[in-house]
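#structure-requests
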Amino acid sequence: MQETIAIDLVEVAPFKALAVSTEMTPDKSGTRLAWSKLTAQVPLDDARLADGPSAYVFIPQEQWSMEIDKLWVGLAVREFGDVPQGIETLEISGGLCVSARVNGDEAHMWRVYDAIFAWIEQSPDYEIDRREGVLGMETVPFEPMNALTIPYAEIETFNFTMLYPVCKKSS
């Protein structure tokens, strides 16, 4: 059976986020540790949080051409307010993003990564926006479960949406 992976172009509104930076770790625990640090300082009932029950993993777009080594784990907020020590503020510029949804096992997740990057590679019109400071993001819903609270090796179903900023190819 051939699975269909839907890839769309979507417009993302600019927003603010409170976040904790982390490095990629071989066991993928960095994002989980960053989530723990973030939610210890910014609880999920914080009045600043924007609507929508999801966390974000932010990826500097310029890293896509090499190895990903720095990420942020964050929560969208209406305003920064009093920023706790160890928490960073991010201004997400928004704009046009290529998007794909992951909902399946680890092999499925890697097929979606392959599909989204193949789409970008083959697009006659768009390329990844690799300007410094441009952040791609993956949204991690809290329901039915928040994957950032589960060790990576124990996740059976990966459930998130990829949103990577793109720009028109220069002709």
